[in-house]
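Weekly puzzle thread! Below is a chain. First person to post its structure in token form gets bragging rights.
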Amino acid sequence: MASRTQTFPILAPYLKAQTSTSLFLLTSVLGASTNWLLLRFLSTALANHDSISQGDVENPVDESRKIVFVSFLRDWTFWRDGAKRLGLDLSRAIQQGRLIYVDGLSGLFLPQSGDKAELPRYGEEKVTVLKDARLEELEKTILRAVQSLEGDVLLMIDGLDFLLAATEIEAQDLEDVLYTLREHVYNTVISLSADAPLIQSPTTQVEIQHAAFVVSLAHQAKVVMSLRLLDTGAARDISGVLRITKGSSLVDEEVTNGHEELEEREVLYFVQGDGGVRIFERGA
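Winning reply:
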């Protein structure tokens, strides 16, 4: 099980490229979810800490690094169980004060008053549940979580673009809130949908707002990791394609530094039934 939590050699240089104020953008399409990739970012931050506590000090990490993980598409149980299959104990990370999980799915659109508003119950696990879709409340709740942690904070947000489709929030307003949040954390990882109808030929107001939001973040990102299905159709032992490209901020850094820091590449991946993932070059 421990082998599943290790960083993939192909991904290692990119995961290590998370520097102060950097933004990593993960994009998905229908049938090619970023779930496994988000879990690998969690693995990089948490699994190494666990190995150090067990006596493995070959690759020490900064124990002050904390995580605020916000998900608008999946609940706490989904992420907890998915991480467990990789040997990661998110419940323990919460108890240690290294992780705060913000549930943006279960309570966001429940009635604000009355008997019908029943929030999810997670037992003794401390999970913050968003109860208000207004931007100012979202900002306050996430900022409160960030500021309650000591040390550098990694902010991970899954499905932030959901708010553009489910509310009347506009892309620029959402981007302003994200900018404020990024000012209070060490670095940020965000997953968004990038299906062709939403990006290539937007016609409705929702599609136009979505395209503007994704394109703007892609320009701000240091690295963009895009998942898509095979162009040739489904394959039994290939789930999809992972393309890693440089964002505008990394290109600017390389111009300033005078050397290339990361290589753009495209690889294949296969998500196994037990949660394990194999990443390999074409033809391997």
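Puzzle host: Confirmed. Bonus trivia for everyone else. Residues 35-53 form the longest helix (19 residues).
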